[in-house]
Design brief:
Elements lengths: L6 H11 L2 E4 L2 E4 L12 E4 L3 E4 L3 E2 L15 H13 L4 E3 L8 H10 L7 E6 L1 E2 L7 E2 L3 H15 L4 E6 L8 H13 L3 E7 L3 H8 L6 E3 L10 H10 L2 E2 L14 H9 L4 H12 L12 H8 L8 H8 L1
Parallel strand pairs: 5-6, 6-7, 7-10, 10-11, 11-12, 12-13
Antiparallel strand pairs: 1-2, 3-4, 8-9
Bound molecules: NADP nicotinamide-adenine-dinucleotide phosphate (NAP).
Length: 314
Amino acid sequence: MDNLITRRKFLEVSMATGATVFAGGKILAASTTAPGMATNPTFKIGGDLEVNRLGFGAMRITGEGIWGWPPDRANAVKVLKHAVDLGVNLIDTADAYGPETSELLIAEALHPYPKGLIIATKGGLTRPGPDEWVPNGRPEHLKEAVDKSLKRLKLERIDLYQLHRIDPKVPAEDSLGALKEAQQAGKIRHIGLSEVSARQIEEARKIVPIVSIQNRYNFDDRKWDSALDYCQRESLGFLPWAPVGGNRGLSGSAAESIAKAHNADVYRVALAWLLQRSPVMLPIPGTQNLQHLEDNCAAAKLKLTPEEWKSLAA
Ligand SMILES: NC(=O)c1ccc[n+]([C@@H]2O[C@H](COP(=O)([O-])OP(=O)(O)OC[C@H]3O[C@@H](n4cnc5c(N)ncnc54)[C@H](OP(=O)(O)O)[C@@H]3O)[C@@H](O)[C@H]2O)c1
């Protein structure tokens, strides 16, 4: 039923993609969309959690070095509330952001949560200090991490819990086994992974159902193209982190001239490019700045021409 679409939507999709299939008198959208042509505004994570594809990353609402409280805590609360006002209903966070402060701020700003808001958190990275990240995939650690995130987020169940890193010192089946147990206990609805190859996703799926991946990806950093293609084939959500370049920024004069042509900035162009890259793409740009948040959310309405899209992909 997911790919059954109305006649009106059919016309929009077919005009944009040329990809349509007729079956049994019904109009079906093709299950995959050519790169540069994705048009669906929403995606169902795990087949049941429908989100607007442009989300928000809550790592940047913490202090310097992703450590402690932000310099202006009231502003961080405002940013979170405003993201939801602007239609964001997928917020990404982690126990490691702050640590703890990102999850605490989300609860402070948004609890009791509006219906349909999906909070995706993570566990499996610990924080000895600012800008320091150390994997810990031991089952005991992960079980405790899930319980602590539930408490901080004031949730009875976490909709999407992502293993922040596969810990090279711990067999993946042990780490994922702990998350499977938490899922069976009703503490987690769906499980996702972060910074993994297509092969690692396949291996993980032998242990537990996986619904999403979170890897570094933007038009300037395409290292994980094959993992993304795997996600698209398998209908897994792909949450690109650093969607507007993160700490490294974005390069390329092509993006600047495209931005100019659309009276936009390169950040908005980068996000529009991602949304058009794949129908499973769920960008989670992060910011502490209300204006940047508004600019980023406007990317959902920016459509690049196929030529513009290709010139950034080149
Ligand atoms: N799974 C992982 O391992 C992993 C790793 C890193 C991040 N993440 C997740 O991915 C999310 C995004 O990653 P990220 O924060 O590294 O990268 P990002 O969203 O690409 O970049 C955020 C940076 O860009 C700036 N920015 C954002 N929008 C802007 C705009 N319109 N104009 C000017 N500057 C803008 C922000 O500064 P201002 O505050 O000044 O706007 C911030 O410094 C994080 O929030 C987190 O949820 C996951």
